[in-house]
Amino acid sequence: MGGVDILHVDDDKGLASLTADLLERKDSRFNVETAASATEGLQLLDDFSPDCIVSDFEMPGIDGLEFLEAVRAEHSKLPFILFTGRGSEEIASDAISAGATDYLQKQSGTDQYELLANRINNAVTRYHSEKQLRETKEEYAAVFENARNGLLLVDVEQDGFRFRRCNSRVQEFTGLSESELIGKTPQEALGDENARAVVGAYRTCVDMRETISYTVTLTHPVGEVVHEVNTTPIIRDGEVEQLVVAFTDITERHAREQKLREERAVIQQALDTLDEPLFVTDTHGSLKHCNRRALEATGHTEQTAVGTPITDLFPDNEREMITDAVDDALRTGRTTVTASLRLDSGQRQPYEFRAHSLTDLDNNIAGLVILGQDAPDS
Q: Phosphoprotein among the record's keywords (predicted)?
């Protein structure tokens, strides 16, 4: 804690000056401003933002309790200590009820200022800690609410899970209102079938005690939704107490990817009907794809073929010719070369290979498609 600014209000100017001097001696961090009345104190508050107010009770015009009520109207959390020569349980009770942070009766001697300094220090420390906590919570709430992903805070209970909090994106992605989620178990909020899918993932996260990622399809009021999810455990005192579930709606992307997979499967089936070997390479001459005949002839699988230099499929004495042919096709767009493919049996089969360049969506060369046909003189 840095410097501590204190506003001391007392109509006894001599006592106010003495109190300010003694407090500043007790703690070098203290900076005390004095006011001779509650009215003057309220005026000072417009320009001076103290960390604590110390006020007398009996003052002309506005007394200490009325001053407290006026302060609380604008500063609900600011530490306010009633430091008064008039003491009674009734005044103390009224002060605490009105929102005073503390109550201290004036006494003779300087020991009371040691006590007052301690009370101020404790009140200000607590005030700043609570203020920082409020600000942290507000920042967290802002991040939570404005996240692009749907966010759920899930309590881990002894016999299951319960939704504690959600942001507006959850409602957007699911069509479920906050009242339909918060305070509910997955079964209550999502139905038995959906709940089985999410509860299984939640339990896995709790057991593994680390973030897990998964894709799940759920049926919501907005329809069937594919969620891409990250679930992270919050661990306190060695126990998983809560889960943070972050998810987004990938339904459209999933549909596009599924359509692309189906289209690729159709194309693959068409290529597999060819009796001739077909290869697809990148611009470096490494295999990206082969049809069934090419795999059968060379003894490769799709997994072992991908990444293999196409030159490895030919005898050593023909590899330079194949390299030149690949370069020529990439440069001119097409070429033809006759070469002997090394078969799985160890034999060689001559083919006339016709290579055509492939382009990407920006019309840049992306690789080659190479089709082998029986050599004219074979």
A: yes
